[in-house]
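Cross-posting from the modeling subforum.

Setting up a comparison between two proteins and wanted a second pair of eyes on the formatting. Protein 1 (sequence, then structure tokens):
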Amino acid sequence: MAPSNDRPLETSLDAESLDSASIRPPPDDLFRAVANTKRRQLLALLATQETIALDDLTDVLVGMATTTDGPAGPDEWAQVKIELVHAHLPLLTEAGLVEYDEDSGEVRLRSLPDAVYELFEFADEYERAVENRQ
């Protein structure tokens, strides 16, 4: 279905941009990765720094979360860390988007095509725009 304003989609995606990176995640894996808010936040954070420790990543994600009673507490922190270790990081690792060293707790974004970073950016911008309309 075409957008109502018939504006063409602008993207820098081409075969050359895909060849410039060693990792080319399959489309289903890539879209599954950005289908979750915590994973989008994680990917956006990793795009700004080379590596991050699992506990620091948990701190940042918990800091972004709020509960109906106010800021997240220790129970929420533990829950976010469990979700990262058992759900989000395995999915992102399997998709080839991140590397996670269980021994050191270091998480790193892998080298990806520019179009993948553009998708991360678009997903973040879209989410903020939707939140601002509510």
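Protein 2 (same layout):
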Amino acid sequence: MERAASRSLTKAKRFFSFKRKYLAIPYSVFLALFVIIPILIILVYAFTGSTEDGTLYFSFDALASFFTSPTKINILVVSLFIGMLNTIICLLIGYPVAYLLANSKVNTNKILVLLFIMPMWINFVLRTGATRDVLTWMGINGGNHPYLATMIGMVYNYLPFTILPLYTTMIKLDKSQLEAASDLGANPAEVFIHSVIPQSVPGIVSAAEMVFMPTISSYVISDTLSEGKITLFGNIIYLNFSQSQWNEGSFMAFIMLLLVGISMLISRKFDKGEQRVRGGGLW
């Protein structure tokens, strides 16, 4: 009887383990149709040209057009600068906020976190339009202060994406390590510098990744708040595709993919540290 029951249990385990593999099929199909195939199409258009009859041929014209254009290079440099500046500002504001939320002794930290992430539930274009109206009322409009208005809009829109990963990392900090540092004579500043910050590095990297790349590729914020006076990399990609310049637009999208890949490689170095502090949920 025991042997028969054991065989039945083994067959059941094989059945469910066999069926479990098929649960990934819908996601695999979605990934292929809407991620892998579009990327391949971008790569094809980035390194090809077309004749009058629509025949494709291998070409570096889009690459040459990009790297021989001072305007496009300047737009990329400005976009990288604004992306880094926005990331730094969001970290400087979001880090202490996330730290205070994670160490709040009152039972309201969940409500406060909810208030910070609520703007993420509102349509992106509506948020940007409302920001423009508020800034215009304050006398900071795109006509007079395009960079200031754009940076305020960037920080406002991406600050929640900074606070959330930092908060989820900080609520999982090793409290015993902090207590041990205090017991060994470290003052609060030393505990913060030598224990809190190193443990929160995975959250910092994750927050930077969630802010830097979207800032560079954004075009709604700069176009709306600067009244068209600031052109970011996302704007020029959108402009190329809207004017049916598929090859040049695809090559610039390919550059964005390279930047994403580089940021992912950097973040992978901190995966081990993130695994160490991971555990539990946000709430």
